[in-house]
Amino acid sequence: MAQEAQSENGSKASPVVFAAVKPWLVVEAPKANDAVQFYKAAFGAEELGSSSIVVSDLTDDASAPVKSPVSGSLFCLETEDVEAAVSKAVAAGAVAEGEVSEGEGACCGGRVGRVKDPYGNVWLICSPSKKCADVAA
């Protein structure tokens, strides 16, 4: 992911390159451990080091990156079996939002199901039918 930067005199500077995006889910304290267990049960999440999503409790600590509840988080997961993935998430405690359908534009198109987890995050579960275009910030 690259972002064009401008120098103070208005000329174009070298692009800023980001090496990674590391999502951070913040849930109402003290539910971070429960959320991790839900993500394992619903989506087969594993605790690895190479690619991560940080899950933490919301705190009043001055150094905390988020100090109030956040809404509007949306994640997209791709799978060949959308219906089974939605069913697994619902069995683990998510709430299905509508029926699985053809979803042009969402998650690169194809079949898409939508669930909300017990912590308020929305997950689009999509088939990988179209190649996603690169997104420049």
TrEMBL record:
Superkingdom field: Eukaryota
Classification via Pfam families: At5g48480-like_C, At5g48480-like_N
Where's the VOC domain?
21-128
Q: Which PANTHER family match?
A: BNAUNNG04460D PROTEIN-RELATED, VOC DOMAIN-CONTAINING PROTEIN
State the name under which the record lists this protein.
Answer: VOC domain-containing protein
